[in-house]
# Entry
Amino acid sequence: MHLIFANQVFDALWAINGFKVVINNLPDFLSGALVTIEITALSVALGMVIGLFAGLMKLSKSKILYAVATAYIDFFRGTPLFVQILLLYFGILPMIFDNGPFSSAIIACSLNSGAYIAEIVRAGIQAVDKGQMEAARSLGMNNQKAMRYVILPQAFKIVIPPLINEFIALLKDTSLLSMIAAAELTYRADLVFATTYEATWVWGSVAVIYFIITKMLSVFGDVVERRLATE
# Structure
């Protein structure tokens, strides 16, 4: 009985052209979603490296390091990611190497993410009790060892939840990469829409895929945050 009802529902949906468009192009949508996740993961990974150094530079007593880190963070946090993508893809990167959409996407998103992660790292380090540094110094550690073995491990637990939020935010922002023909989800959907004009079904499906991915990441973030809270 349930099988017959399911077949009737499917037949009714299959009679709708937009539904057929989505089903026929679902492999392309899923492939684009994988590229989106890949770009986001690589960008956040590189952004964490950039952000760690930029965050430490902003906490440095050196005025030069502080000024460089501040200029970098302020620029990438104070200008739209869309403009940064266009500036790097069409302007700066072609003068350095033969860039393509994928490499440009990684660089642009990494630099943008790094600026936000730098502030997350800075806030995480400052959230660690100052007595921890004094205790480490009393054990004979210098500033570098104290930061590496005492402060950063504690700060890492603090910054994990906002890092997951940054991952989610960047994943949604990768839709801007469709303007440079990076083969992510939005670009794949735009190609389908250009030939079918089924706006509601195409973009509705894309919205659902983004929602599913971000919801899974949000649930993962909640689990991690609860586990850290109990440790």
User: Anything to note?
Assistant: Residues 52 and 118 are 6 Å apart (CA to CA). The chain has a mean pLDDT of 87. The chain has one domain: 42-230. Residues 42-230 form a domain with the MetI-like fold fold (CATH 1.10.3720.10).
